Amino acid sequence: MDVHQPDLFLSIDGQLRFSDCPLITPSTPIADCFLAGGGTKTKVTIAAPSPSSLSPSVQILATGAHRSSNCSDLGIQFAVESIGHATLQALAKLPSHYPATSWTFHQPAPFMKIWAGLSGVDSQADVVAMKAALGELFGLGPQDEKVLVISNDCDLLSGSIEFHYRRSIEISSSYKPCDGGIVLIAGTGSIATAYVPSSFSAIDVPRESLLKVAGRVGGYGYLLGDEGSAFDVGRFTVKAVLEAADAGELEVKLDRPLSSTIANSTLLPALLDHFGVHHVDDLLGAVYRLNKSAGQTEHDRKVRLAEVSRVVMRCAYPGDPSVVGDQFALEVMAQTAKKLSVLLHEVCRIHNLKPERLVLCLGGGMWAYEAYKETVLRLTAESWGAEWGWVESVKEPDQVAATTLVRRQFSRPLNEFFTLARARLPFSGQKAQARGDRRVWAGVGHPKLDQQMKDDSLEYIVSTEHGNYSKPTSLELASPQKALSACQAKRQDLELIVSVGPNAIASHVLVALSTLESRRLIFGGSVARRVLVYLMGAKGQNFLLRAALATSHTYP
């Protein structure tokens, strides 16, 4: 019986402890492995394409978990140990019809693909170091260079963005435009990472991502940032209580971040209980206390403070609609939500992103309560007018990564969806040759795609002029902005070849094109039909359009 070989996806959150390496039971590749690693635990998912599904779908075979594998907090050795134990746990849970495996650390692991998205991996040096360490753990050799992929944990979640972006291309006539998205992680730490369309390096390589990282805001760790994270909630809450105690009345003054009375809050006794103390006077000592004889480290202290967020959210969002949340806890969460709104605003401002064309992908334990998500979204709308195109909450990033990889394997190459559509007005070959050096190609901003579409357009022009039209010796490759300038200059002798992709259909370019006095317009791109309809219906046209529209590819 053939068995689909699964991939391994690793998700990491938490602490780790050393233990003896257990022996499971054949060492042949069986699946893909996905690892997701955050600040609290490490999650491993073993997955394979579903053999019974006609459409791209994933079969989750087994999962495992261990403590944190954040290499910046714990070091590479501890991180690798945690990943190894989570992997062993997942292998032990494989269904009985899969071959038994006998794997120990540093032996060849039974995975065709391993994608590890790890918190604490913030630079190329981190990637190189973790790839070497995990390559040794999984027994990979030089021939296995493409088996293991290391990335930041945000990349695992970006599959949700890639899904909507691909759909906006494949069914552009009925799907609103998507320009990428933002992954906002609010777990033990926090970070906002923006993803935009790549330069189409993945056009002919379905397994490659269609997105690239535009930039990030935050993710500086608890010493320098982590605004809006679980750690930030814990720190903010404890500090507010201590300030109230120092004021002698357990009440935060109006000129401080909170204005509610803490003394009668249900959160106060819950907070003291979390740290195992009975009086506020003992709270500060409990926050800093470490049991070094038991092997506790600074990481344990950070996690203990981050876990205060669970106490706060339980008090703020009791779950019973008839019960009003604790006012102190609600104000703590409101302050935290404002910080996340600021992160999103900054990343949009820096990279000139429009929320209405973006996927907002939410990951991390802070999104466990729907009411908190609604608070953040409301603040982004009220404070800076954000209306998100899509909002996705991801509870299992490793499983999202598994689905993403399977979807890439079964997806058609993207260039099938950028078919050319042409609008042209015949004129004499002699005049065409005379104008051959005055053509401007307006691309979509993706070099590989633009070059391909330009070549296809020229081939079409030559083949349809019955031998009377020679290929121009030069053709300027222009951006949409340059095309707009040419339109505004109203060069009547200009032939404009326009490529309109799903993300280059700016309204100002369309307006300029609608008044262009041109003899020939050639449109390429998945939205070409829509653009031609727009131009043919525009007023003030002094040229005719005759469309030769290519049949659009559809995606099931």
Can you tell me about this structure?
It comes from Cronartium quercuum f. sp. fusiforme G11. InterPro entries: ATPase_NBD, Euk-type_GlcNAc_Kinase. This is N-acetylglucosamine kinase. The protein has 556 residues and is of the alpha/beta class. Among the domains are: 7-153, ATPase, nucleotide binding domain (Nucleotidyltransferase, domain 5, 2-Layer Sandwich); 230-332, no CATH class; 418-549. It is built from 18 helices and 17 strands. It has helices at 71-74, 76-92, 124-137, 153-157, 159-170, 230-246, 267-274, 283-288, 298-306, 308-316, 327-350, 370-384, 397-410, 429-434, 447-463, 480-489, 507-514, 528-536; strands at residues 7-13, 31-38, 41-49, 58-67, 111-118, 148-152, 181-186, 190-197, 211-218, 359-363, 390-394, 420-424, 439-442, 476-478, 495-499, 520-524, 547-549. Strands 1, 2, 3, 4, 5 and 6 form a 6-stranded mixed sheet that branches. A 6-stranded mixed sheet has the order 14-13-15-16-12-17, with helices on both faces. Strand 3 and strand 4 (58-67) form a beta hairpin. Helix 5 runs parallel beside helix 13, helix 6 crosses helix 9 and helix 10 (308-316) packs across helix 11. It is globular, with a radius of gyration of 28 Å. Residues 1-28, 200-206, 252-260, 413-445, 457-480 and 490-556 have low confidence and may be disordered.
